[in-house]
Design a protein that fits this description.
Layout lengths: L3 H11 L1 H39 L19 H13 L6 H7 L4 H10 L2 H13 L5 H10 L2 H5 L8 H23 L32
Helix pairs in contact: 5-6
Length: 213
Amino acid sequence: MIDLKSKTSQRKRRRTCWDRLRARRLESRRRGQADLATSVVMQLLALFAMLFGRMPLVPNIPMPVPYTPPPLSPGEAYRRGVARRLGVPSRYVDIVLAQGTVPYPVLFEHIRRGGKSRDDALSLLRERAPESCRDWLDYVRDWGLWSQLMLCYVRDGLDEDTDVRLLKSTLAWLEVQNSEASVPGPNGAGASATPGTGPDKSEPEDDPTPPRP
C-alpha cells in the first residue's frame, strides 16, 4: 500500500518555496493595505487640521447695525421746511396755509387723542390761548390734567367762549396756589391763614412768678 501521508508530506515539501513566495506576496499586500490606511488617516488628519485652522478661535459676534432712517421724500422735506418757517408742527402745515391758524376743534381733538399729536397741539394751544393761561397749561401738562383742559372747550360756541373758560380755569388755579402759599411754614404748619382763627394760647396765671422760699 502506498503511504498517503508520506506522499502528502513530500508534496508539501516540494511546494515550500512557492509557499514562501506566496507568503511574501500576502505580507507585501498586507503592508500595502496598512500603508494605504495610514496614508488615508494622514490625509484625513491633514484635512481636519486645515479646516480647524481656518476656523476662528472666538466665534464671530454680529455687531448691531445702527438704525438709519430712510431718506425723506421731496414732498415731506418740503413740508418740514415750510413747518420750520411757519413755526408749527408739520402736521398743521396745510391747515395754517389754508386758514392762517389751527382752529380750536382740531387742537382739542388732538389733545384728546394723546401721544405725539397731543404734544404738538398743546404747543400751539399755548401760543393761541390768552397769554395769562400759559402757566396753567404748563401745569396741566406736567400733572396730566387733560380732563380739566378738555372741559374748557366749548363745542358749539365761539373761540371767545373757550378763551373765557381757559381764563376762568387759570384764575381758579391761581387762587388755589395763592391760598397754599399763604399757609405758614413749619413753625405754624396746619394753622389757619385767617387772622383770629389760629390755635388757642394758654392764658397767663395771675402771678406767674413762683413764690420764693
